[in-house]
Amino acid sequence: MVVSMSSKTVKNPPVAPAFTANAELRADLQRALVDITALSLVGKQIHWNVVGPNFRDLHLNLDEVVDIAREGSDELAERMRAINVYPDARPSTVAAQTSVPQAPEGGVITSDAVDYIVSAINAVTTTLRDIHDSVDEADPSSSGILEDYTQRLEQQSWFLSAQNYSA
Predict the structure, then answer these.
(1) Are 135 and 28 a contacting pair, CB within 8 Å?
(2) Which residues does residue 108 pair with via DSSP β-bridges, in sequence order?
(3) Strand, helix or coil at 52?
(4) Which architecture does CATH list for 23-164?
(5) Per the CB 3.0–4.6 Å rule, which of 4, 23, 46, 85 could disulfide with 80?
(6) Where in this chain does the record put each Ferritin/DPS domain (predicted)?
(7) ∠ at Cα 124 (21, 77), nearest 5°?
(8) Is the pLDDT of residue 12 over 80?
């Protein structure tokens, strides 16, 4: 089956937006979008394949992480469009550009799943923190989004990592 997709040039809107992101802001928000999108994907991958002690609690907690990541990717992408940036979260782009470590294949024992998802969350929050100051300087409205998702994801990292502590 051959699918033909026509490319049409999208013309600028008749009235320009009040604010347009500069190149650095576009790149920073794109980095955040790619990483938070990747987190939603690997979170589901682990969710489907986790096994072992405390399975149910971890399975449900992973859905919370995925929900946060999906909300974050949507909010970031919509913010990007509001400031005249085209977001790119196509699978090939996400795979090529993410800093999130690759998820393990197959079944993952709960303690390893916790370690993995915490490392994935930490990769995202590191990106969000790395770009925060330059985003804040260019567009404080966008930096507020980064702050919100940094806080929410760091809380999840803490909740999850606490499962692997021992006395």
Answers:
(1) yes
(2) 50
(3) coil
(4) Up-down Bundle (1.20)
(5) 85
(6) 28-163
(7) 35
(8) no
**Closest C-alpha to 79, from 34, 141, 14, 125:** 141
| Cα 17–chain centre separation | 26
At 2, the amino acid letter reads V
- Residue 87, classified by CB atoms within 10 Å of its CB into exposed (0-12), middle (13-18) or buried (19+), is buried
- Poorest-pLDDT segment among 15-19, 43-47, 56-60, 99-103: 15-19
Q: Which amino acid is at 96?
A: A
For the stretch 33-62, pLDDT in tens is: 999 999 999 999 999 999 999 999 999 999
Q: Where are the domains of the chain?
A: 23-164
The CA-based angle 73-79-83, given to 5 degrees, is 145
Structure tokens at 148: 């919100």
- Residue 150 pLDDT class (50, 70, 90 cuts): very high
